[in-house]
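User: I'll paste a sequence; please echo it back and then give the predicted structure.

Assistant: Echoing your sequence first, then the prediction.
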Amino acid sequence: MGSEECNDQTLTIIGMQLVGFLANGNFERAHTLFATEMKAAMTPHDLEAAWKGVIQKFGLLLRLNGSRLEREGPYNILYVTGVFASGSILDVKVVFNEACEIAGVWFVPAQSDFKPPEYADPTAFEEKDCTVGNCGLPGKTTIPTGKGPFPAVVLVHGSGPNDMDETLWETKVFRDLAWGLSSDGIAVLRYDKRPKARPDLFDSSIPFTIMDEVIEDALAGVELLTQTKEVDPSRIFVLGHSLGGMMAPRIASLDDRVAGIVMMAGDAAKLEDAFLEQIEYLVNLDGIIDENEAALLVEARETVTKIKELDIGDGEMVLGAGRSYWDDLASYDQMKVASSLKVPMLILQGERDYQVTMEDYDLWKKALSGKIVKFISYPTLNHMMIEGEGPSTPQEYTLPGHLAQEVVEDIVDWIGSLLPDGV
């Protein structure tokens, strides 16, 4: 097709045709719209497998919700927005070359107009860029307006290469948390996790531990806040989510400037045990374990055995980490370390969370009996501390939502209760 025909209307028609062919299972016809290089890279069978993967995860495509056209260099990119049976909203990203042929297809979370949660007042704080740690991690501080110095919180991420907002599909829990706390007089530091900013440091050729992945940068965050003139260096708290919550006691044990810790959905179990529990939960969601799910369970149990026995060869990665990582975690008992701390603790748990469960919450209660600790659980919240109904599923994470207001209020109240004049 000549470039003179490659106008916006033509691109939109071709992109819509592609999505229609996919929805109707006509993968051969869809394949004819591809550029020559794309045809070689992705066969009709590959395209079918990719589409079926989307359907399996998000349900059938129910309807289209418009499209938009953008340009990047020599490429035109059409985003076709679809609503799926799970309630998820995805964009089919269709990239065109100069000849109006399809040079790439991806399925990505749909863009949405961000609206801050009701509890966030962007006029009540100033957000500033910063750099954290020796690896130069991009970060932001949110500093309340008015007269300081203010209490402050370092946010520590969960598993995986999280950005500073802890973005998951359309949710940004750490941005919600930072904006909510800073709207109520608490400074917050958040930053891109090291595996996000420096993935080159986490390949199979480089031994690394949880110190490299999480702890060193959290400690650097504490140091940065102590040097921030608007922050009271005697009132710096660490808040960890998921893996970050599991590591919060270790972080506090390494820096006596930490005035207290918040564990939000923090694992009480070993990380590999939590992984297996999640797999068991997911394959049992529909009450039936099929052949593929049974094989997945066997593989997951074998993986856990390898980790526990440290049967991991040089250069081998298991669940994204090598022997040095799992060896380090094997010697870490978060409940024992937490029980040795002299600082106050706040433990928050969503009762619908299937990744860190109420069993973890009860283990924390038992381990920390008699310590300076407050426990709060929330009947309707999931692992991201976002409201929902019924059993939690991975598909739930694709839906728009905000960190629950009651979580922000409880953190503000708890920090205020520890200060002579409140927050």
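The CA atoms of residues 105 and 121 lie 38 Å apart. The two ends are 65 Å apart (CA to CA).
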